[in-house]
Amino acid sequence: MTSPPRTRMTATERSAEVLAAAVTAFAETGYEGTKTDEIARRSGVSQPYVIRLFGTKQQLFVAAVHAVCDRIEELFRLAGAGITPDTDIDEALRLLAGAYQAFLVERELPLVLMHGFAACGDPAVGDPVRDRFGRIYHTICELSGAPRTRARRFVANGMLLTVMSAMQVVGPDAIPVPWAQEIIDDMNESDCD
Q1: Residue 193 has what DSSP assignment?
Q2: How many domains are there within the chain?
Q3: 0.85 exceeded by the pTM?
Q4: Which of 89, 104, 115, 142 has the maximal Cβ count within 10 Å?
Q5: DNA-binding region at which residues (predicted)?
Q6: How far apart are CA 60 and CA 123, in angstroms?
Q7: Domain-located, residue 39
């Protein structure tokens, strides 16, 4: 019995597969701790092929951070589709908060975002990370209509939740700790003010 013929992936499909493997690897071991050999192994290609697709590990890491930020913006824009000119700011921010909760559940993504922040000392990484963070902030302002102080508080709460997600004290598999629940309860009460 012969095997069915394998369908060859397009370069775009292969690139997406390598990028997905990179997101997983960078989430686990960060920028410094991840080797392109590991990414190649996970995606079933050679290490030189990874470099041919993305240039350097640094460029691949930046591409991974861009993919994560693209996902945040995608989720915010999907939530923003439910925001009309009649939607008040509180409701608009609640919709965006729900979208960010969906992002946090995709556990690898917040970890790559955190690693991106940690690698900002490298200008080739820091400049695009800062740019994308600014774009996310402006997307929040644009979609919600929130004034800067409200948008800043929204971003600050989101970053706190990102850190807590990385520590595994929020989310579907959260390790229960009293202080984390206090923070979540306070955020929920503050949202009602």
Answers
A1: -
A2: 1
A3: yes
A4: 115
A5: 35-54
A6: 15
A7: no
The answer to the question of residue 49 being in a domain is no
**Residue 47: is it exposed, middle or buried by C-beta count within 10 angstroms (0-12/13-18/19+)?**
middle
Question: What type of residue sits at position 159?
Answer: M
Angstrom distance (rounded) from CA 27 to CA 69: 14
Quick check: is 3 in a domain? no
Other Cβ atoms closer than 10 A to 12: 8
Tokens 């729900």 belong to 98
Contacts within 8 Å (CB) and 24+ apart, 89-97: 89/144, 89/145, 89/146, 89/147, 89/150, 90/191, 92/143, 92/144, 92/145, 92/146, 93/144, 93/146, 93/150, 93/154, 93/191, 94/191, 96/140, 96/143, 96/144, 96/154, 97/154, 97/157, 97/158, 97/191
Banded pLDDT at 1 (limits 50, 70, 90): low
